[in-house]
Design goal:
Elements: H1 18-22, H2 28-32, H3 64-70, E1 79-80, H4 82-91, H5 96-110, E2 126-127, H6 151-161, E3 168-170, H7 171-180, H8 187-204, E4 215-217, H9 218-225, H10 228-274
Antiparallel strand pairs: 1-2, 3-4
Helix pairs in contact: 4-5
GO molecular function: calcium ion binding; monooxygenase activity
Family: Belongs to the caleosin family.
Protein name: Plant seed peroxygenase
């Protein structure tokens, strides 16, 4: 047997399985930063850097998976309608076309499993209480089957795929991760996982587009699991819009002053000549 690269007392790799070294587990000191890292959390999404999860959680009575979509329920009635989803994407800064397509994909595929009746609801509502029923395959398994958050699985995401830096995943590493986690014949899972990370990349990816130097930070990935990222992005979008309004008003004021100056100065000049 071969010990892992961190020389931990517990064997996590063997020579007969090269895949173990290709996708290593975190060192034990990473797990030790999170109390009882192997126990899924009902309403917190902790990491080694944030062992107590997010300080700005909006719905502590929700599971982490429920918190993930609570942003799209602005009236807090426990139901997300298609127009709520569309509005939520727009509030985060997505264009109309992408928001509409996201709304269609999400509600056409995920509304019915959350309903309590066998008769489909034509309004395609998603009931937050049953959101765990739409957990799909080929994902990271960071949510368990009841919507809890698994800290150990989250840390393993970065030890396995974060080869470039410890606090982020590059575009190449995300593609590698999505490919590695595919389950046979799970077409819906493949598509859903790709669209989830593609959307996340559009929302908070850093660097140049989808190039080798682009990445998503570990903290942003963690915060999207408990939904706090969405509120953060909404605030950022509101600030951007406010700055745009202020710049527009400033430009309008400058234009008005310039026009006023062009009218007043010739008049003053003519008056001066007459005197």
């Amino acid at each position: 047997m071969a010990k892992d690269a961190h020389k931990d007392p517990i064997e996590t790799t063997v020579d007969g399985a090269p895949v173990h070294k290709a996708y290593p587990l975190p060192s034990t000191d990473v797990y030790e930063k999170i109390p009882h890292a192997g126990i899924p959390r009902a309403n917190l999404a902790p990491s080694a850097e944030h062992p107590n999860g997010s300080s700005d959680i909006h719905h502590k009575n929700y599971s982490v998976l429920q918190q993930h979509i609570a942003f799209f329920d602005p009236d807090n009635d426990g139901v997300v309608y298609p127009w709520n989803t569309y509005s939520g994407f727009r509030r985060m800064g997505f264009v109309m076309s992408y928001s509409f397509l996201a709304m269609l994909f999400i509600h056409l595929n995920m509304a019915y499993p959350t309903q309590t009746s066998w008769i489909p609801n034509p309004a395609l509502p998603i009931f937050i209480a049953n959101i765990h029923k739409v957990k799909h395959g080929s994902d990271t398994d960071i949510y368990d089957s009841e919507g809890r958050f698994r800290p150990d699985q989250f840390e393993e995401l970065f030890s396995r795929f974060g080869k470039t830096r410890k606090d982020a995943l590059t575009a190449t590493e995300v593609r590698m991760m999505l490919s590695h986690q595919r389950r046979p014949w799970d077409i819906f899972g493949w598509i859903a996982c790709f669209l989830e990370y593609f959307t996340l990349w559009l929302l908070c990816g850093e660097g140049s587009g989808f190039g080798s130097d682009s990445y998503i930070t570990k903290e942003n990935i963690r915060r999207q699991y408990d939904g706090t990222l969405f509120f953060q992005m909404e605030a950022k979008e509101n600030a951007r819009k406010q700055q745009k309004v202020e710049r527009s008003e400033k430009a309008k004021k400058a234009t008005t002053n310039t026009a006023h100056k062009k009218v007043v100065e010739p008049v003053q000049h003519m008056v001066g000549k007459e005197e």
